[in-house]
Design brief:
The protein has 292 residues and is an alpha/beta fold. Helices cover 41% and strands 18% of the residues. The chain has ten helices and eleven strands. The strands form two sheets. It has an eight-stranded parallel barrel, surrounded by six helices. Strand 4, helix 6 and strand 5 form a beta-alpha-beta unit. The protein is globular. The protein starts with a strand and ends with a helix.
Length: 292
């Protein structure tokens, strides 16, 4: 098992100016991680023509600390992105495939869509948009295969979040270079039991995000700043691995029982100090994996 950290986990420190995106790489090594995960808006918020140089700089910094680059995560929307021009959005995503290959990362996660807006006049049914999503996803997967990069999508963004939805999408795409990234915490955004959801998608998983949330019922007092609502109106707030209501240890048990033994990346998005949160979270995550 290898332990990675999404550099998005340091985002609060980056916004405060206490760390730069490049400095997060050395901090990940200091905290004991084996690898880092690169995120588009954190590490590659630059014009396309500057991406090769940015990849070179990140790769050199990771090499300096002996860290692998486990994955790249980018946003994408094959229904609405690039002004609704699907072909243009596919080409934009392919640029990130090139970026991922230049980094030497073996995989890249992209979103697929956030769905149509309620006032668009178009169907908001997930099943109804799958036929439109399959061709661009396959095109990106085939292009990435030539570059030695596996593509994945994640249960993320509320619309493409549920375990049954991403399972349907995976089976519809049916491409050997396309897999699922399982974020054990994100299922709670769709009000799913994470352990049951992980059990459903485990056969298709090639990469994992470990995440924890504090959950409160719709009927509890609104916790205010730092929390957001699930699809059904309950409250979630990101927190340290082991401090919330996501059954992280049970999810790891399910994944291990399914034969998963690759990389787990912490994605922290809580209000706590990210350095302490990642230090404590990594210790808990390692202990849970050993115990299951």
């Amino acid at each position: 098992m290898k332990y990675s950290v999404s550099l998005y986990s340091f985002f609060s420190a980056i916004r405060k100016g206490t760390l730069t995106p490049m400095e997060c790489i050395g901090k990940a090594k200091e905290l004991g991680f084996d690898a880092i995960e690169i995120v588009d808006f954190v590490n590659a918020n630059c014009p396309p023509e500057e991406m090769p140089q940015r990849a070179k700089e990140i790769r050199e910094e990771a090499d300096k600390y002996g860290l692998e680059i486990s994955s790249v995560a980018i946003g994408a929307d094959f229904l609405n992105g690039s002004g609704g021009d699907t072909a243009k959005e596919v080409e934009r995503v392919k640029q990130y495939v090139d970026f991922t290959a230049a980094l030497g990362a073996p995989r890249m996660r992209h979103d697929v869509t956030h769905g149509f807006s309620p006032d668009s006049g178009k169907s908001s049914s997930y099943d109804s948009v799958i036929p439109a999503l399959v061709p661009p996803i396959r095109e990106v997967a085939e292009y990435a295969a030539q570059k030695g990069v596996m593509t994945m999508t994640e249960n993320h963004g509320f619309f493409s979040q549920d375990s049954d939805r991403v399972e349907k999408l995976y089976n519809a795409v049916n491409h050997p270079n396309f897999a699922l990234l399982c974020d054990m915490g994100n299922f709670m955004c769709a009000d799913e039991d994470p352990a049951l959801a992980v059990a459903r998608v485990a056969p298709y998983v090639k990469y994992v995000h470990a995440k924890d949330f504090v959950w409160k019922s719709f009927y509890d007092a609104d916790p205010g700043e730092g929390a957001f609502r699930t699809r059904a109106g309950n409250f979630l707030r990101g927190t340290i691995i082991g401090h919330g209501n996501v059954p992280v240890k049970q999810c790891l048990h399910v994944l291990k029982a399914a034969g998963y033994n690759d990389t787990v990346a912490i994605e922290f998005e809580g209000m706590e100090d990210p350095i302490d949160a990642l230090r404590i979270g990594l210790a808990n995550l390692k202990r849970y994996w050993e115990e299951v």
